[in-house]
């Protein structure tokens, strides 16, 4: 799930294409992208201003929206914090130890991405709910997991895990062995080799995985609403608030919130890609795998 | 590297990862199958034969088929354009194609309402002419198209980039036209990547919930896809029926994951 870098794309002024069919295939691509992505997103960009600046100002004064944004951001952030060590551990085990059954585990890691979100939602709500396999024993200990913000964190942890593992795995796999061997011969302990050599190299993919998981997390709907409890100001996530506004036929309100959510998600991704570039150690080419 | 600890650490870490995978991923999947089969396999199958359930399955199959065909064609065109030619604005086009990944599914449904809803730009005009897109099947198709938009292009591009252009240029010099080159030279070579992207598109299209929930209007038997029907059943306390349909989707999802893994592994063996 790592971001794609098409390295060969450069700007060649007035160079004739060697292969035929350029205008046909570019035309098809532009038609497809224009109708299905650019057109609807233009509507999203323009709509909040259609009735003047009023609806947007109104949306910006909505305390419930800030509460929903806070819930979404904090829960997505906590979920990523949980996913980072788990994802690193899983990638490490799979790549370095190849234990019995590692292929099955490798396949299982993709499941949160492949299972429909509504299915995840009802499964997690039942599992962590008051009578569930995990919810019941946790309830005896006084922990309320489902129908609270903790439930949102659980759902987003599940959703985000593949992003971290799949970002780290290829880099870990292509990590040059001789660097570690040299460190070992120079007397570095296992822990030192991990902290001083591997972790700096793994920081960029960890960051980009975290960015993707976070962006996905703040927009997540299906897996969250069943387990969240959905109380305004407490456990209501932003995408749900958009749906509520739409059910009130408040299109302007819904669109303003949507625009704010989308812009923040994109800003997060841009920030992460800048951060990633600045911590890049240059040891491993991320796009090599 | 043969100290005492270096033998114990791998075992501890492996056990730890297996426990985490078990708790986090295996347990929810096991629960879905357990809940679906609580009253036996027969009851589970019976719930899938309910008319509304059957209509949901049919609608999902139909929407998935249309979406997969359109996004596969678009994805091939995009991947080919971006990797076989040099032109201005290519980077912008790549970002645009990847944009839907970071858009919340709810927003993916909302944008089509803004165009085709009753308060939307063209919804009323089209409605007067008998064309209903929002709260109807075309809206569901559009929302699903948006959500699964990048997958084929994203899986194909890195591979076609690596292919280079020599084979295509040779085919062209020997007199093959555009379509012949695409169908007989480029695509067979990129076959596994294409199939993997198509499977991913299918899996995501089948399971899309948020975007479809916003635009479908939730009319049982008419505009309810499988995930929406699961929500209706679950909220109506029809737990066995909800989990039976969920189990069906999970089985399809697991199959696609396995096939994709197999494809990628056999590819890696061919091109180490």
UniProtKB/TrEMBL annotation, chain A:
InterPro entries: CysT_permease (IPR011865), MetI-like (IPR000515), MetI-like_sf (IPR035906), Sulph_transpt2 (IPR005667). It comes from the Bacteria. It holds the Pfam family BPD_transp_1. SUPFAM superfamilies: MetI-like (SSF161098). It is found in: Cell membrane. Gene3D superfamilies: MetI-like. Residues 69-272 form the ABC transmembrane type-1 domain. The keyword ATP-binding does not apply. CDD domains: TM_PBP2. The keyword Transmembrane helix applies. It is a multi-pass membrane protein. Belongs to the binding-protein-dependent transport system permease family. CysTW subfamily. PANTHER family: SULFATE TRANSPORT SYSTEM PERMEASE PROTEIN, SULFATE TRANSPORT SYSTEM PERMEASE PROTEIN CYST. This is Sulfate transport system permease protein CysT.
TrEMBL record, chain B:
Residues 57-260 form the ABC transmembrane type-1 domain. It holds the Pfam family BPD_transp_1. The chain crosses the membrane at residues 12-37, 57-80, 92-117, 129-149, 170-187, 240-263. One of its GO terms (molecular function) is ABC-type sulfate transporter activity. It is found in: Cell membrane. The keyword Transmembrane helix applies. One of its GO terms (cellular component) is plasma membrane. Keywords: Membrane, Sulfate transport, Transmembrane, Transmembrane helix, Transport. PROSITE patterns: ABC_TM1. It is a multi-pass membrane protein. Part of the ABC transporter complex CysAWTP (TC 3.A.1.6.1) involved in sulfate/thiosulfate import. Probably responsible for the translocation of the substrate across the membrane. The complex is composed of two ATP-binding proteins (CysA), two transmembrane proteins (CysT and CysW) and a solute-binding protein (CysP). This is Sulfate transporter CysW. It comes from Gluconobacter albidus.
């Amino acid at each position: 799930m790592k971001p794609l870098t098409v390295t060969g794309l450069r700007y060649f002024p007035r160079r004739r294409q060697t292969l035929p069919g350029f205008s046909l295939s570019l035309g098809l691509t532009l038609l497809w992208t224009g109708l299905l992505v650019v057109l609807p997103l233009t509507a999203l960009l323009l709509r909040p201003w259609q009735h003047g600046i009023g609806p947007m100002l109104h949306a910006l004064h909505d305390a419930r929206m800030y509460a929903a944004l806070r819930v979404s951001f904090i829960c997505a952030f906590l979920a990523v914090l949980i996913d980072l060590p788990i994802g690193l551990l899983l990638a490490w085990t799979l790549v370095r130890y190849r234990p019995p059954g590692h292929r099955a585990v490798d396949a299982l890691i993709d499941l949160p991405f492949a299972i429909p979100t509504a299915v995840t939602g009802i499964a997690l709500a039942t599992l962590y709910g008051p009578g569930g396999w995990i919810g019941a024993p946790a309830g005896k200990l006084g922990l309320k997991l489902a129908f609270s913000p903790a439930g949102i964190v659980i759902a987003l942890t599940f959703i985000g895990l593949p992003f971290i593992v799949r970002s780290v795995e290829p880099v870990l796999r292509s990590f040059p062995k001789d660097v570690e061997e040299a460190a070992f011969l120079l007397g570095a302990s296992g822990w030192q080799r991990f902290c001083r050599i591997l972790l700096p190299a793994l920081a960029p993919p960890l960051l980009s995985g975290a960015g993707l998981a976070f962006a996905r997390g703040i927009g997540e709907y299906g897996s969250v609403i069943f387990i969240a409890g959905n109380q305004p100001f407490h456990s209501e996530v932003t995408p749900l608030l958009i749906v509520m506004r739409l059910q009130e036929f408040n299109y302007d309100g819904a669109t303003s919130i949507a625009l704010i959510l989308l812009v923040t998600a994109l800003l997060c991704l841009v920030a992460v890609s800048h951060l990633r570039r600045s911590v890049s150690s240059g040891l491993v080419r991320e796009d090599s795998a | 590297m043969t100290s005492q600890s270096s033998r114990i650490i791998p075992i501890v870490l492996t056990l730890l990862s297996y426990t985490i995978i078990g708790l986090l991923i295996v347990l929810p999947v096991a629960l879905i199958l357990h809940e679906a089969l609580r009253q036996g396999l027969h009851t589970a199958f019976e719930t899938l034969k309910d008319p509304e359930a059957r209509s949901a399955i049919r609608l999902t199959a139909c929407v998935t088929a249309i979406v997969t065909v359109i996004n596969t064609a678009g994805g091939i065109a995009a991947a080919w354009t971006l990797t076989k030619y040099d032109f201005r604005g290519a980077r912008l086009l790549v970002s645009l194609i990847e944009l839907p990944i970071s858009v919340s599914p709810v927003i993916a449904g909302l944008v089509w309402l803004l165009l085709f809803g009753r308060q939307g730009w063209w919804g009323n005009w089209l409605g007067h002419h008998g064309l209903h897109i929002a709260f109807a099947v075309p809206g569901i198709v559009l929302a699903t198209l948006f959500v699964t938009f990048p997958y084929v292009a994203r899986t194909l591009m890195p591979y076609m980039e690596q292919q280079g252009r020599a084979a295509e240029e040779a085919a062209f010099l020997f007199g093959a036209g555009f379509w012949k080159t695409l169908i007989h030279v480029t695509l067979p070579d990129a076959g596994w990547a294409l199939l993997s992207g198509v499977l991913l598109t299918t899996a995501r299209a089948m399971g899309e919930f948020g975007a479809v929930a916003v635009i479908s209007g939730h009319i049982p038997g008419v505009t309810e896809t499988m995930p929406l029907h699961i929500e209706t059943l679950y909220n109506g306390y029809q737990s066995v029926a909800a989990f039976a349909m969920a189990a069906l989707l999970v089985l399809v999802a697991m199959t696609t994951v396995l096939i994709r893994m197999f494809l990628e592994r056999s590819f890696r063996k061919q091109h180490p």
